[in-house]
């Protein structure tokens, strides 16, 4: 509920603790959830196979027959996301009904029908089995029983979400809560250029996720890259967010913009080329943002960092946005998939400005890799059994709270 | 006095000839070249871009053409300007080619752009 949101000052005291106002305890949290292989399996079954997961954008498959394949190794499957002749987008397990091979072998494409690369069983874009080579030698084959297995799919603001549960416990609208209408009006439909990066991080998916949920680390880990834009030595040295909120299982955090930030020479050049259009330095009051974005209407707003539990978070700036997903690959490994979305470049100048932004983005995330892998390597040392979170790590605590609500409490561990 | 050009770049961009080996079509190639260069080499590339209005002038030249239809000489010029953007974090922020963090190197290839990146 937006009504639960809390706006903090830049100098909060314990008396204004939003962690406590949100009804969460302030105890240390067991780290067993980061390392326990059995608990990992519990999370896959009780969380990842039951929640809505964003797998791509509708604008990536604009025409009937356009498809992409989304491997989901944590669920031992791969999905085909395909737009049908009727314009509807559907999801199917990429598993042939014949001998259970993957049907589609390329990452994306466009086809009139989907033909299995092994023996040639052929499916319509609606998943129906339409052709079987040498069909007369099967035994009373009833084609209507052997279509592709569908997966629940819903779209919202052009985002394609799937849910692996045969009967999802919530609709996407219920799952997204306040986001569903609160983001309406943000120009998602104009920001169709996707700069996508992928990388395997040798860390539990929650270690990586938690790194995206707090800015406490910015002044230290990102001292060379992002810190100066989001903190201020006098007013906000610890890079506090300017607003926190709760939306069901998800959290909202509005990041601060340093009014005294000194752009680098090449940043100044991009401002002069663009009149600041693609910059984080665009003031929020210049923007016509929907009520769900910068909900406190704070003048020193740079971006919202909103989570979509458990899998993703979205960083909404006035003129571009980032979408990060951390797909589990095992107890100590995940795939980070991260995207910057911008308006399509009209010319070389705009494309170049995007590259200036992308180059720093890539290195900032590599800094996160470093710290996350350095955590995972020693988490199982037995030296520590719990982690200690402060008030501004509220979104981290909230995510662990909901993870345990769904998957069960973290296993007890004793000190070394 | 500018040296006669090689013909691989548009007239008026003779200063950029020295950096023709940075005219690489993909981000992965530009990034790899950066990580194999010395700091002096990437600083020299950056300095050329930031001298006068070199980057703006190069981009204005390329803006005469639709982005997907740059002629070869303009495409090479554009790719050199993209390399100038590529070296920005190391020149402006890290002041060195490699990560300023101690320990093993975290290479850009660990978080690589997907192939469609360079078709944009």
Q: What's the gist of this structure?
A:
The complex is a heterodimer of chains A (416) and B (120). Chain A has 416 residues and is of the alpha+beta class.
Structure commentary:
The complex is a heterodimer of chains A (416) and B (120). Chain A is an alpha+beta fold and 416 residues long. Chain A has two domains: 2-48 and 183-407, Naphthalene 1,2-dioxygenase Alpha Subunit, Chain A, domain 1, CATH 3.90.380.10; 52-168, Rieske [2Fe-2S] iron-sulphur domain (Rieske Iron-sulfur Protein, 3-layer Sandwich). Chain A is 25% helix and 25% strand. Chain A has helices at residues 18-21, 32-35, 37-48, 172-176, 178-182, 205-212, 218-221, 227-230, 265-274, 348-379, 394-407; strands at residues 29-30, 52-57, 66-72, 77-83, 89-93, 108-110, 114-115, 122-123, 129-131, 150-156, 159-163, 193-201, 243-247, 250-256, 301-308, 312-316, 321-330, 333-342, 386-387. In chain A, strands 2-11-10-5-4-3-6 form a seven-stranded antiparallel sheet. Chain A starts with 17 loop residues before the first helix and ends in a 9-residue tail after the last helix. Chain B has 120 residues and is mostly helical. The longest helix of chain B is centred in the middle third of the chain and has 15 residues, at 72-86. The termini of chain B are far apart. The model of chain B has no long low-confidence stretch (mean pLDDT 91). The interface between A and B is large, with 40 and 40 residues.
